[in-house]
Every structure is written in structure tokens, then in C-alpha cells.
Design a protein that fits this description.
The protein has about 60 residues and is an all-alpha fold. Helix content is about 85%, strand content about 0%. Helix 1 runs antiparallel to helix 2.
């Protein structure tokens, strides 16, 4: 499960860091884009968490 989180979480953190580090400015479109990306990334992270929990609950 940790590997799945690492494969999803590390690129998300890097992408958000690059977006903030790009120093685009505080324009409305840039702010909306950053917020939408953060919300989408959070949705992907929560979905991966739910799938990983379901994988752990399965018995062979």
C-alpha cells in the first residue's frame, strides 16, 4: 500500500511545488488553476486510498 501512495503522492507534491515555485503571480486564473489542481489531486489521493483499503480487505 505504501508503494501505491508513493507513486501517487510524490508526483502530486512535486507538481504543486513546481506550480507554486513558477511564481506565476496572484492572478485570478492562476489561482483558480492551482486550486483546481489541488482539488483534483486530493480526489485522486482519496480514490487510491479507498482502492488500497479494498485490496487489503480481500482474502485469498
Amino acid at each position: 500500500m505504501a508503494a501505491v501512495f508513493a507513486l501517487v503522492f510524490i508526483p502530486v507534491v512535486a507538481s504543486i511545488g513546481f506550480m507554486l515555485g513558477a511564481n506565476v503571480g496572484v492572478s485570478l486564473p492562476a489561482t483558480i488553476a492551482m486550486l483546481m489542481f489541488a482539488v483534483l489531486a486530493m480526489g485522486v489521493f482519496l480514490s487510491v486510498f479507498k482502492m488500497a483499503r479494498r485490496w487489503e480487505d480481500e482474502t485469498l
